[in-house]
Amino acid sequence: MLTGPQIRCARAALGWSLADLAERSAVSLSTIRRAEAKIGVPEINLPNLEALKSTFEAAGIEFIGSPDDRPGIRIGTRKP
């Protein structure tokens, strides 16, 4: 599971705008805004959360920790 801060940090680390993330993940802008505003795990449907996660991972972001124990990101290299 991802948290709102992890989503914000991953997007910032990649230099993506909300529109960039929406286009790449096929998740609506309003859903991404709601997800980023949440401190813990966003209350969005699981397919959207998984789409965000897989989009970030394809761009080289690794999610570390858990929602309850030091959630964060690690910036890796983009996968071919």
Quickly describe the structure.
This protein has 80 residues and is an alpha+beta fold.
Notable traits:
two-stranded antiparallel sheet; 80 residues; 434 Repressor (Amino-terminal Domain); alpha+beta; single chain
Return the domain count: 1
What fraction of residues sit in β-strands?
A: 15-25%
Q: In the CATH hierarchy, what is the superfamily?
A: lambda repressor-like DNA-binding domains
Total strands: the figure is 2
Q: What is the helix/strand order?
A: HHHHEE
Mean pLDDT: 93
Low-confidence stretches: none
Give me the CATH architecture, please: Orthogonal Bundle
Let me know the largest β-sheet. Answer: 2 strands, antiparallel
Give the count of helical stretches.
4
Termini Cα gap: 24 Å
**CATH top level label:** Mainly Alpha
CATH topology: 434 Repressor (Amino-terminal Domain)
The radius of gyration over CA amounts to 11 Å
State the share of residues found in helices, binned by percent.
Answer: 40-55%
The chain-level structural class is alpha+beta
Q: Which strand order spans the largest sheet, edge to edge or round the barrel?
A: 1-2
Protein name: Transcriptional regulator
InterPro entries: Cro/C1-type_HTH, Lambda_DNA-bd_dom_sf
Domain HTH cro/C1-type: 7-36
